Structure prediction request, 188 residues.
Amino acid sequence: MGAGAGGGERGRRDFDAFYAATAPRLVTVVYALTGDLAEAEDAVQEAYARAWERWPRLCAGGDPAPWVRTVALRLAVSTWRKARNRLRAHFRHGPPPDVPAVAPDHVALVDALRTLPMEQRTAVVLHHLLGLPTAEVARETGASDAAVRTRLSRARRALRAQLGDERGAGRPAAGAFRPRAPEESRPL
Prediction:
């Protein structure tokens, strides 16, 4: 939240009281609109989070309840419209094509990547899976080229140990980290 959000201790107490007094009814209203309790709760929670960020200004303008209600209803309608459009697209274009099963080696690689520190994982994904040169990886991550090369080296060593690369070579097997063509791309 932004600096000064809520307006101090008194602002927090006022907001808490406002939330306790108005949130249950607003969830009911949004639920009546959407027909989905989880969606209603999400929209209301987001509306109150946005209200907290603007709390002093909302209070200075009078009753904040209409503002929060408007935001919650707009969020819910936006979510509903997105769902409706997805459903229309499904009927217009048919179901998405079957996605082939994920290969066991891909699952093992993703599991191994998850064990790496975030900097190493990011370097491996950008360099080996997307095919970016180390200089571009450095620009995108805000690291030096040398740091990216070090991260890649350490990541390869950790992945080799975890995936049981028995060759003992210093590089991954040919094609192990090749960039995928768009039609073969699957989320990690």
Residues 47 and 71 are 6 Å apart (CA to CA). The two ends are 30 Å apart (CA to CA). The longest helix spans residues 65-93.
